[in-house]
Amino acid sequence: MNADVLLRACKRILRPLIKAMIAHGITLPAVLSVLKQVYVEVAVDSFGLDGKPITDSRVSMLTGVHRKDVRTVRERGVPATAPPGLSVGATVVGRWLGDPRFVDAAGKPRALARAGGSASFNALVAEASVDIRPRTVLDELLSQGLVAFDEAADRVTLLVDAFVPRNDSPAIFDFFESNLHDHAAAATDNLLAASGKAPYLERAVYYNGLRPVSVDALEGAARQLAANALAELNAQALTLQAGDRDDAGAAERFRFGVYFYRAPQRIDGDDQA
Q1: In principle, which of 6, 32, 47, 141 could form an S-S bond with 146, CB 3.0–4.6 Å?
Q2: pLDDT score, position 272
């Protein structure tokens, strides 16, 4: 019974993902090939017994993937995809918004001298990455409309309150992958958690029967509340990270996100996918 309920839920969850794949020309055979690989990887990673290596037969039994295909996937030795690192541009914007050296007394990002001193744009980039030249980062942020550069004054001004990549930027796929993965991972852990284990934070507010103008107002309020919450957590995380940097036990990551979605309401009272 629970499997039927979960499968029905997964069908709806998959709808926006299938929409994105069709829009990018990804067909069912390609998806099935990836699904087969992921089924095997997850079974190997999470469903061994007593710490012993899991056998191909057990993987096949758990997943329904033919044992020959299980062996092929495992022999290929392709590890499960690691989470992509935060882009240098995103790191630069995040630090600019939260580090006390780069904000004014009101907590707003200051215009930065391009070079010179520990509070310059070049110094900010150097803290985010030692492998990429500051000019390269500046050009990328300029191309995305995230900063303005006054060449006469040699100063860089941040124009946004968050790093939001353009639709044609490779970074948007990293955000798509990371944000949806971690939200789904939190929800899955909550679903599978043993009784008494504290659940991950996962909450939402839902209302229907609203006029479009009312949802406009609520969306505006949500964006402002989200910006405030993310800015506060960003500042706290920067401070804690600075203190944790030299600790050998500093080996965890976190992601906190918010979203707002609106859709027409169907006659039966549900919302459209």
Answers
A1: 141
A2: 59
